[in-house]
Amino acid sequence: LPRLAQELDALLPKVFVAAATAAGVVHSVLPDRQLVFTAMAVDPVAVGLAESYRRPGGTATGNVMNAVGGEESLTAKRLGFFKDLVPNVERLGMIGVVWDPQALQGVLSHQEETALQEVSIQLGFRFENYAIKTPDDLERVFAKALSDGVDALYISGDPLLTVNMSRVMPYILAARKPTLGVYPEWGRAGLLLTYSTDALDGFRRAGVYAAKIVRGVKPGDLPIEQASKFWLVVNLKTARQLGITVPPNLLTLADELIE
Question: Which of 92, 144, 164, 216 has the fewest C-beta atoms lying within 10 Å of its C-beta?
Answer without folding.
Answer: 216
